[in-house]
């Protein structure tokens, strides 16, 4: 008899549990916003039924957006009106501050009811935001099978394939027929949403292939899965970084991706909606690091913690400024002789900093998205330096001519500022391009090379160039 393995099931109670949740109708136009003022008025009037009736016409994501805009106490009051099913659909879209505030208020059994309706990856994320003690209290109100699976997910690093995967996965034997697989999907349709692909395993649950669900519809019911499955199916290792997983989705245009362990045993799957969250998270993190703000959120929970995060980055800028001050002091005689020279420092440093940041942004983005491959890094360096040279010549000539017009009695001053502008922009391009590459080669996140580090380095280089050229041509 052919062996057909069924869905790996996280929450066994789902099948028998009666869902008393109101059905969300979503009949409102997609661009229709929830009236926040009306919601607040209904809250003050204590008209809970009216609030539920109004929200039932909106998508959970829109309700979550509303709650993110409300005061935390108001959001908590609305959340408490929802039944576990509705609450589970909304809590995954709440921002960290609102969600953590609500979780601190809810009883463990209430959180357990919500967790019972969540997909395994969302359940792990939710419990991961709690302390170990609180998480254990919640799991006491969740079926044993769910507890085991959630704890296994919590054991993985949150930024790895194992940290973002879900354990609900459909697997079949290669000797099953198309009709048997379709029957299995129908019998278990309530246990997993968004079935995009079927994964094929051997007797030891090792991944040997896969196929999209749509192929089942097109094949004969008696066709063996072994005849139509893809044997070169792409998979991710459980410890693979989430950024690398996102690159797999982009490279192969995937909707879902199986996750395997060291023995190639199928243990979960990652879906495209998880990857969208990963891309947003990584992009936000890179931009914050490039700005020298670490990985803090837009609305940090702790002002002190946020200040501590920014402190080392700004300290680098401060030290760089002191170095620049020392350099200027060394060339005090030069500046004293040609006072007008000081007025050109801001424009030269500003242009160098801008082009350095542009080069860094291009390289960091290329490394993050995979558009810049390891073997082509030095081609990127060469290209950016040539771009810096072209722009440096253009702006160097422009600044020299402008200086000659303003200080016609000091022709060599125009030569100094023109050459300084050109050299500063070329070297700024080189620094802005090479620094993230050097860090990337060293195994360090290249995003940390931007912001204060690049601009400070470029400032020091710009001042050295300007004052050295001044010493050569004007003294």
Tell me what the structure shows.
With 475 residues, the chain is mostly helical. It folds into 3 domains: 12-164, MgtE N-terminal fold (Alpha Horseshoe); 171-272, Roll (CBS-domain), CATH 3.10.580; 303-474, Tetracycline Repressor, domain 2 (Orthogonal Bundle), CATH 1.10.357.20. It is built from 22 helices and 6 strands. Helix 3 crosses helix 5, helix 19 packs parallel to helix 21 (411-441) and helix 20 (377-406) packs antiparallel against helix 21 (411-441). The N and C termini lie far apart (96 Å).
Short description:
This protein has 475 residues and is mostly helical. It is built from 22 helices and 6 strands. It has helices at residues 36-45, 48-55, 60-69, 72-79, 84-91, 96-105, 108-115, 120-128, 132-139, 144-154, 161-164, 178-187, 213-218, 225-228, 242-252, 272-290, 303-330, 332-337, 345-369, 377-406, 411-441, 452-474; strands at residues 171-173, 197-201, 207-212, 236-237, 256-260, 266-271.
CATH architecture of the largest domain: Orthogonal Bundle
The CATH class of the largest domain, by name, is Mainly Alpha
Would you give the CATH topology of the largest domain?
Answer: Tetracycline Repressor, domain 2
Reported for the largest beta sheet, the result is:
3 strands, mixed
The domain count comes to 3
What's the name of the CATH homologous superfamily of the largest domain? SLC41 divalent cation transporters, integral membrane domain
Summed over residues and divided by their number, the pLDDT gives a mean of 80
Strand element count:
6
User: How many individual helices?
Assistant: 22
Secondary-structure element series: HHHHHHHHHHHEHEEHHEHEEHHHHHHH
